[in-house]
Specification:
This protein is an all-alpha fold and 235 residues long. It has one domain. It is 72% helix and 0% strand. The chain contains 10 helices and no strands. It starts with a helix and ends with a helix.
Length: 235
């Protein structure tokens, strides 16, 4: 195994573990925040909302690192797919970190607490600018990235389940766009299933994938073993 590939395996392994831990914390905080709501129409209160924003800011760059490591683990002929996956995930990272950093640092300030900022820009209620940007990131860029990542994998027995759950995550997250089409954000919960619990299964499958150090990269040019044996026989 070449040194860059070995580094990618180690980085991919620990990044997948870190993301799995962060996703678990996110679900826990979200569940607590929802449980403590005085009414279903009330947004999640602090400190739970702020904690969720911080967790998203931590996860986004790790997702880019994860897909870069996956790129190094793919076969050379499939690397255009893995590069496309990185590009879409990078777009998601830029959009979601910019959005949630702005919400975390600006939405509470007095100069942003009046309309139109407080009603049309920052709230996660449809329609709003924040919600629209979030949908582009997670319901468009996310499924495109996961689709490309799945196409970068081989049709081998070991990678079959990983590929299947990547495609399932892509499909469910894309179905979250029904919320926009039908003007009903309850349908976006379908997308949330795709990039939270289903992706946690993807992360769990990526851990043994990177731990095995599977080398799907194109082997360096050189004589095959069968050719060497034939040469020795001839001699």
């Amino acid at each position: 195994m070449s040194q860059p590939t070995s580094i990618a395996s180690r980085m991919g392994l620990w990044t997948a573990i870190a993301l799995l831990v962060l996703e678990s914390l996110y679900i826990s905080v979200l569940s607590i925040g929802l449980f403590l709501l005085p009414s279903p129409a009330t947004p999640i209160q602090n400190p739970w909302f702020t904690t969720m924003e911080i967790l998203i800011l931590c996860m986004a760059p790790l997702l880019v690192i994860l897909f870069i490591c996956l790129h190094y683990r793919t076969k050379a002929s499939r690397k255009p797919w893995s590069m496309a996956a990185i590009a879409f995930m990078l777009g998601l990272c830029i959009l979601t970190t910019g959005l949630h950093f702005a919400i975390l640092t600006l939405s509470w300030r007095s100069d942003f607490s009046e309309p139109p900022w407080s009603t049309l820009v920052f709230p996660f209620r449809w329609p709003s600018l924040a919600y629209a940007v979030d949908i582009v990131a997670w319901d468009i860029f996310w499924p495109l990235s996961l689709l490309c990542a799945a196409c970068a994998l081989e049709h081998s027995r070991r990678q079959r389940w990983l590929k299947s759950f990547m495609l399932l995550s892509a499909l469910l997250s894309a179905l979250g766009l029904l919320g926009v089409a039908l003007d009903d954000m309850d349908y976006r919960n379908i997308g949330i299933v795709g990039y939270v619990p289903v992706f946690m299964i993807v992360l769990a499958l990526l851990i043994p994938f990177f731990r095995r150090g599977e080398n799907n990269a194109l082997e360096p040019p050189g004589p095959k073993k069968s050719d060497l044996n034939a040469t020795r026989a001839y001699e």
